[in-house]
Amino acid sequence: MMRLLPITAMLAAFLTCAPALGLAEPKQRLIVLSDIEADPDDSQSLVRLLLYANQIDIEGIIATTSTHQKSRIAPASMHAIIDAYGRVQAQLLKHEPGFPKAAALKAVVRSGSQRYGMQGVGEHQDSPGSVAIIKALEKNDTRPLWVSVWGGANTLAQALYRIGKDRTPEQAARLISKLRVYTISDQDDTGIWMRTRFPDLFYIVSPGGYGNGTWTGIHTAEPGFDSTEVSNNWLAAHIQQGHGALGAMYPDVSFGMEGDSPAFMSLIPNGLNAPEHPDWGGWDGRYELYTPALETTNPEGFTGNVPVLQEPRAIWTNAVDSYTPFVYNDYGRNVRAHDKVAKGYRATIWRWRKEFQNDFAARMDWTTKPYKEANHPPVVKLSPGTRLTIRSGEGFMLSAAGSADPDGDHLSYLWFQYPEAGTYREQIKLGYAENHHTVWGQAPVVSKKETAHFIVKVIDKGSPALTRYGRVIVTFMPPAP
Fold this sequence. Notes:
Helix content: 10-25%
Shape: globular
Radius of gyration: 23 Å
CATH superfamily of the largest domain: Ribonucleoside hydrolase-like
């Protein structure tokens, strides 16, 4: 057992912590571009997204083409799914406030270009979708605008073309600085054009063959690990069957389950997600800013015939996590480390998969169950806060003891370091037990400022079990001179 830390060190830790972050974070703004009907997964992702419509400001849902659907768009399918949402919207409001009426969501459905790729970019190629993107950027709103691209990106490319042509360089730079783009691979030839033409554009993508896609971690069954929550039986029982009008709209898997959902899942407020910091990791995966070499992007893999070219500049793209899950123990300490370690870019998503799938299932339950018969997520309270600064060798304490559950469910805890999210990559041991609400640590000796991220999972024992997170960023400073 770790020795007790000196009380003076503990007081210093409390006094140097920063105010808690994220207590009243504004909703993220979102526009979706979707080649819906090219593959059932777009419909699946739209069903999931609508269950979080009270937590994300959905400002546009735009039907587009892609390499898988080059000459048609299908906004009618978007309207059909939103109509089904409308039939459960009043029921959702019994569980959380803020779910918009279906009419408000239908009002932001737009048609993008019906041409494929760069054929739809240039003079006389504007569409209601591209115009809507520009109008959203020009709103008097200081929040960034996320564009989540589930298919081809040419409607966004046309908006950028128009901005570049019709605005002054200063005006264009101001509008582009508000954009945050996450595309599910490149499903037309406009992605590389945008990343070349607009070098300051914030862009998350796994370029190249789909085998290179971090997003595949949402549905990949990892050998040796439990993948129950992405099985067809699980989807039937928890999403599709007996879950009202919206669940009935969730189609069977044809190629891969919800390959598009990672493009918006970082926008869900859960205590872990930090959309402005892709390198911190969240439900959408983890990404680092660099210029990938062409040969590392699976250029000969499946792309739907979209050309794969050398990236011209740094982008937010694949990062690698080493992940050891904790598994349940029948006796003694209730968790233990799995005997296998997973490593790779897909692991940056699937490490959270049981938790975000249970969250999806619980919200689908809300569409049919009264409040008292459904589960609702716990509320995490951190002490001393979300940021802490200490000197080399000093002790520190991390606690989620004040956390609570709205349904009165018992709570479990799991603390761990997320080495890849910080600058200090060595493992820092936490005691007494990682599944206690409070843990202790000791700062390593450092010669320059370093950061380490510590995550706590707070998990209720409702059905399905729901998880919320706390993230504490500890800054280690060299010894005082």
